[in-house]
Design brief:
Elements lengths: L1 E3 H51 L5 H11 L3 H4 L2 H21 L1 H4 L1 H5 L4 H24 L4 H7 L13 H17 L4 H66 L4 H9 L6 H51 L4 E3 L1 H6 L2 H24 L14 H7 L8 H9 L14 H12 L2 H4 L6
Antiparallel strand pairs: 1-2
Length: 437
């Protein structure tokens, strides 16, 4: 059986359009996963800072040593915050003493106050500058005057070709300027007159800059003094915050299970530390899963569809080149099977969207025991085994089919969570997204 090449081309062009429509929701899901990653990253950073604040609630030698002991962080040993604070406080006190001893600071009211010497001098310089600014404007305000000056019009430096249209336009502009200023010649009369007033303007602008620099120097002394005086009492809180932030950064790559074990071995540890560790571990796991869903599951589907679309584009172009001739319909008939795959792509998108919603909605981090394998966070978040679209995760669950997360028995909702997990486990096969060949 044969059809026209145009009919075959139209068929494959329709396929190209169908695939574009199939790709659109996956591309939107990819953007949503990226947006959620940014949001969760912000939550993770906040949780790490909260945890650091719990480990280091105060700034003291004992608190710093205890935080290092319980976390393995050695940043405080390498750079002692207390020593750094003492050094900074000494520098601030030296700044205050230096400024207080400066005669310009002592006499600041008489120098830069409303009736200060430099304030009055500035007023005088401005009054002497203003007439020259006005005189320069009489020249510079004329149409094309500054352009002519920059080009060196009517001087040996003027290089505009005589035979160009621009040359005659600039000549007309120069004549107009001479007429407006009631002077005879641009080079002999206008330029010397302008340069004279411009030189005076530059002179008084220099004087103004000199006075302003002296005024600014006095204001800088005041700023230095006020900043140092304001910072000194705030220094302990500032150093504590910086120390907590350094510890928070350490938690990003720390082993939460190991830290949790150290807490169990410490008789004085606060339970809030364990809760904080679970939360930071859960948020870090969620970040990793969002990346896996985006770069493996969704990108994998998009790569598959993109490859199919390129194939159809090549087929459409091939049949268009045949110019309407009769061709075998076998390519089109074989492609009919793609119609069966379209609902599977829609189903895959729906299931990936559902997984994403489950993942981002989870907020029960504090009940997850940290001696669980980290990959059990996936089951904790979603209540199901991962699909083949995330091969690393799926491989782990295939190797550990019976593993389920343990929960903190001290939390009342643990039993209910376990029941829900068991119920959703039965749906795992239904949530398996599989392959579309």
């Amino acid at each position: 059986m044969s059809i026209s090449s145009f009919q075959a081309a139209e068929h494959f062009e329709q396929r190209v359009q169908q695939i574009s429509e199939l790709m659109a929701p996956f591309e939107a899901l990819r953007l949503e996963l990226a947006r959620q990653h940014t949001r969760v990253a912000s939550l993770a950073a906040a949780a790490q800072l909260e945890l650091a604040q719990a480990y280091l609630p105060a700034l003291s030698a004992e608190a710093l040593q205890r935080a290092e002991k319980l976390t393995g962080f050695r940043g405080y040993t390498r750079r002692d915050p207390l020593a750094a604070m003492a050094k900074q406080a000494d520098m601030l006190r030296r700044t205050v003493a230096r400024v207080l001893a400066d005669e310009n600071y002592q006499r600041r009211e008489y120098i830069v106050g409303p009736a200060g010497s430099l304030t009055l001098e500035r007023v005088e310089v401005l009054s002497l500058l203003e007439p020259w600014v006005h005189e320069c404007q009489r020249f510079e305000g004329l149409d094309q005057f500054q352009e002519l000056v920059e080009l060196g019009y009517d001087t040996p430096d003027y290089e505009v070709p005589v035979l160009s249209v621009r040359y005659w336009k600039l000549w007309a502009a120069g004549d107009g300027i001479c007429q407006a200023l009631e002077l005879d010649d641009f080079g002999d009369d206008v330029l010397p007159a302008y340069r004279k007033v411009a030189a005076e303007r530059i002179r008084w602008q220099g004087e103004l800059a000199r006075v302003d620099a002296r005024i600014d120097a006095v204001h800088e002394l005041v700023r230095e003094h006020d900043h140092a005086v304001a910072t000194l009492p705030q220094l302990p809180a500032m150093v504590l915050t910086a120390s907590q932030q350094a510890l928070a950064g350490f938690f990003e790559n720390a082993d939460p299970a190991l830290l949790a074990q150290w807490l169990t071995e410490d008789q004085d540890s606060d339970r809030s530390l364990t809760m904080g560790l679970r939360k930071t571990a859960g948020l870090q796991a969620k970040l990793g899963y969002l990346i896996e869903l985006r770069t493996q599951a969704v990108d994998g589907v998009l790569a598959d569809l993109s490859g199919r679309q390129s194939k159809y584009q090549r087929k459409a172009a091939k049949f268009r080149r045949k110019g309407g001739r009769s061709v075998s319909s076998i390519d089109v008939e074989q492609d009919r099977r793609f119609d069966e795959k379209i609902p599977k792509f829609h189903s895959r998108h729906a299931k990936l969207s559902k997984l994403t919603r489950r993942l981002v909605a989870y907020n029960g981090y504090r009940r997850f025991e940290l001696d669980n394998d980290p990959d059990l966070w996936w089951f904790e978040f979603t209540g199901s085994r991962p699909s083949r679209l995330t091969p690393r995760l799926r491989s782990w669950y295939d190797e550990h089919p019976e593993h389920r997360p343990d929960h903190d028995p001290a939390l009342a909702e643990a039993a209910a969570v376990a029941a829900v997990a068991e119920a959703t486990a039965a749906q795992a096969s239904a949530d398996d997204l599989g392959y579309i060949s």
